[in-house]
Amino acid sequence: MSVGRWGTGLAATGVLVATGVWAMGQGGDGLQGRTGVDGRLWRAVRPVIEARLVADSRGGGYGEAVPGLRARWFCRAQARDLDEHDGLVRAGVSTLCLEYGVRAGALLECGGAQGPQVLRLRRDAGAPGGYRVVSALRPPDGVGYGQWVDANFGHRADPGDSMPAGTLQATARAHFGLPVNAPVRGC
Questions:
Q1: Residues 99, 61: contact at Cβ < 8 Å?
Q2: Are 76 and 96 within 8 A, CB to CB?
């Protein structure tokens, strides 16, 4: 391998590391600067929540019906509130799930959903991550949405903050082995 290629590879790695550091400083931990959220508990339950979001999204996107796209779901959750009592965790979260596939060196965005949820998890030593989701509540579409948000989040947090797709795009590019600057197109 030539010195030029090594330099390009090192520069790309530097960009990835810098992006990761920037994202962590901008709420890459999924807390988005939320005070009063137990960071240790969030780090424990977040992977379980995001795995559940992915599982719940399967079967709901166009890309999954097209085998050549190799489409799959990528999900992210941000903590809005988090409480634990007697081994039961209540997590009020904002969620973003996007379905990505790949074709001709481009990342294809095939579907997605974003919104608030309330999940309850129970400690379970036998479950992956040590927690098991026991319920997941979503607001109704249309009439009743605002009342649901008020009843489940109240003044504690605004679950309506939009979440940028950049982290999910980066994760999808890495999953599919695409370069960090691969274009994103619609399905």
A1: yes
A2: yes
- pTM reported for the whole predicted model: 0.76
Tokens 């504690």 -> residue: 156
Q: CA-CA distance, 113 to 81, in Å (whole number)?
A: 20
pLDDT per position as a tens digit, 140-176: 988 988 889 888 887 555 555 567 888 999 999 999 9
Tens digits of residue pLDDT in 116-147: 999 999 999 999 889 999 999 999 988 988 88
Alpha-carbon Rg of the chain, whole angstroms?
A: 18
10 Å CB burial of residue 74 (0-12, 13-18, 19+) is buried
**CB atoms < 10 A from the CB of 6, how many?**
10
Per the listing, tokens 């810098």 go with 18
